[in-house]
Each structure stands twice: as C-alpha cells, then as structure tokens.
Fold this sequence. Notes:
Layout: E1 2-5, E2 8-14, H1 22-42, E3 47-52, H2 60-74, E4 78-83, H3 87-99, E5 107-109
Parallel strand pairs: 2-3, 3-4, 4-5
Antiparallel strand pairs: 1-2
Helix pairs in contact: 1-2
Amino acid sequence: MTGAVSGLRQAVIETGPLAPGALEAAATFYERFSGAVAHAIADGAASVVLILPTGPYDHADWRRAAARDMARLHAPVRVNVIGGDDPRARAATTEYLAMAEAVTGQYLPLEAGGSEITLEQGEGS
Length: 125
C-alpha cells in the first residue's frame, strides 16, 4: 500500500500477525520485511511506514531497534514503525508521518481511540 503527500511517496507496509515471543517475532520481522523496505525505497518511496499489530510489552525493545536501525541504514529515506490495531489510529498516524518530514527512526505504539485530534482556538481566531 502506498500513498502520496506533497508529491513525496510514502510506502505503507503492514506485517500482519507476528509470533507471540519477542525473539521469534523479531526474527520473522527482519526476515520478511527488511527486503520489503528496500524494495519500496528502490521503487521511489521517500518515506516507509511499517505497521505492526499490538505486541506484548517485551516486544517494545526490538521494535524500537528495528525503527532506529532501518532509518539509519536507509537515510535519507525516512523509516518509522507503528504498533497498534485500531484502524483509525493507524490511519491518523500514517497521515501524520507523511507530513512530518523530520520524523524518522521512531517506534510509535498506538492506543485505541487515540486518533481523534482536537485543536482549541483562542479568542479572535
């Protein structure tokens, strides 16, 4: 899945379910999706977002490392990782990352219901 924002192409890669154990999940992630990131970049993506399902607490370390290391490897292309199951939160975060040109190498765990953004305007606005 890909999207275009401001003329820059963002590739969105959904991993689907991963193993419940952190080591097995990390091994599967790198084996299956490192090449997918490289392929998206070769196809012209200026940003890549990997979407993972919500994971247990012990998955956070390898997910942060994956985001950081893939971003370093593929710089100046931006690479970020989202973790969460809520479709609205995923869509809102993916849209934000498409516009946030300085954000790279981040693991962003999402919470259900976190996709609503309210902007308060002061008087006279």
